[in-house]
Amino acid sequence: MVYLIVKIILEEKMNKTQKNIIIVSIFLLIAVILFNSYFIFLKLKNIDFVNLKLNTNKLETNTTYQNNNNKKTNFNIINGGTVELTDIYNPLKISFNYILDEALVNNANVKLYTSDKKEIPIIINLEDKNSFLIFPVSGSFMEDSIYTLTIKKELSGSKEKLISKDVEYNIQIKKLYLGADLLLTNKYDSLFKNKKIGLITNQTGIDSLGESTLDKIFKSNEMQLEAIFAPEHGLYGDETSSDYKASYTSKIYGVKVYNLYKDTPNLTAKMLENIDILVFDVQDLGIRNNALLDTLYRCMEGAKSKNKPIYILDRPNPLGGENKIIEGPLSAQGTGIDALPLSYGMTIGEIANYFNQNINCNLTVIPMIGWYRYMTFADCDLDFKYISKDIVDMDGMYLYGTIELSTANTNFNMVNHYHGITVKNVDLKEISEKMNASALSGASFIVEKDENGKDFIRIKITDYKRFNPIKTGIYLLAYGRIVGKENFKIVGTDEISKMLEEYKNPEEIIQSYQDRVLQFMSLRDKYLIYK
């Protein structure tokens, strides 16, 4: 290329001085390029590069770490980053850019730990000269949602070590597996094999693919469905008080269905006489004021009284599990339902653990995989299954706590399937304006007409992460009282009702129970399953 440029210059009609200037400039440019190349080479020479390729059938992640030999460091481990797994049933493949010493590919140099530092037994199979596969002994990543994979520096493949330090990878399960998903897997099937099962469930008891736990147990050749127990609203969530029957025989499943509400809330000796174990799978609302928690508590008491094991197939708290969602007054003492805040930030399995401090039944929780405390129902990528005739969509699930709190002891009324609220002879527009101007976040408040042309306040969730149903309910109560004065009726005698009578502002009410909420937070920690 340089030859062509020089030839062109010589053929052009230029004087000697012009030609010399151009030629000198070209050689100076070449010198600069060579100098820079040498400088880059010197820098690269002092950096070790190791490429580790981790993949499953559905995911491939390439990670490179650097260690500059010129810099001293006290760290003996290099973190290679986070690897996200979307299938717990596939092995991990570890690939290197050099030939491995087969004798070094062993359990001493490759280790897998859970988030609480428990070592997981693994099988390591050499795939080829550059890679190997990791199989947890259980056949899948079913111990935890977060793991640490440690690759020891001794795994280098030559005399000059290619790995200068141990490398750690954070492995995070990104697909959610419910307890119902894991019911028939190798890890848990021995618990249920050849057992006569009493299943406590309703239409919400489905796995992440939408198949009902009831159908899975009924179809299984490994266990026998002996009886079904349904919480409030019945087996299919569509029963009203007038539909109530204490029990009946299912035409589909051929077994007895017992309704655990109204006149028959407790498990009796007759109900349990032919049952080996109880299994509980119902979607909770994350709010204390609903009959499901009472059903769970009574079922655990029934299991204890007749010495029956009870298994909880865990599923998400739809409001999430972080401390910020814990809200509302609770009784000062006790370990039952009244000792919970209105919003408690625990899964149904964790609540069962919490209840069991008092009951002490033979309890086992089948935990989820891939659920983290920050996750609300909107983060879980699950199909919503209606809870009752009034809770028919996901927003209704979130707003249940707000509306139940607001209407419990006042003349506020729920409208539009838990999407709104109304009250007679009170300026709804002024209430909504105060709500929109408040420090609350995650929702907006709009006065609309219902199908009968009557005004109501529609609550529109704008951010599921920031929406706090109990705080929102307390603000509605306080502003309802402040705006409505005597037209806003208060019929309760609880602590909040007394403060409303005194026209306390919402933040005063919220602050009144914070000490007890903090006590609950510290108490609940030992019953938590998830990080």
Question: What is the compact description of this entry?
Answer:
The protein is an alpha/beta fold. The chain has helices at 2-11, 16-45, 179-182, 189-192, 213-219, 269-272, 291-305, 348-359, 394-407, 428-437, 469-484, 495-501, 506-512, 514-524, and strands spanning 47-55, 60-68, 77-85, 92-96, 110-114, 119-120, 122-128, 131-136, 146-151, 166-173, 196-201, 224-230, 247-249, 256-259, 277-281, 310-313, 363-366, 413-415, 420-422, 443-449, 455-461. It folds into four domains: 2-45; 48-173, Immunoglobulin-like (Sandwich); 180-385, Rossmann fold (3-Layer(aba) Sandwich), CATH 3.40.50.12170; 394-491, Aspartate Aminotransferase, domain 1 (Alpha-Beta Complex), CATH 3.90.1150.
Would you mind describing this structure in some detail?
- This protein is an alpha/beta fold.
- It folds into four domains: 2-45; 48-173, Sandwich (Immunoglobulin-like), CATH 2.60.40.3710; 180-385, Uncharacterised protein PF07075, DUF1343 (Rossmann fold, 3-Layer(aba) Sandwich), CATH 3.40.50; 394-491, Aspartate Aminotransferase, domain 1 (Alpha-Beta Complex).
- Helices cover 28% and strands 22% of the residues.
- The strands form four sheets. Strands 13-14-12-11-15-16-17 form a seven-stranded mixed sheet, sandwiched between helices.
- α7 crosses α8, α9 (394-407) packs across α11 and α10 (428-437) crosses α11.
- The longest helix is centred in the N-terminal third of the chain and has 30 residues, at 16-45.
- The radius of gyration is 32 Å and the shape is globular.
- The two termini are 63 Å apart.
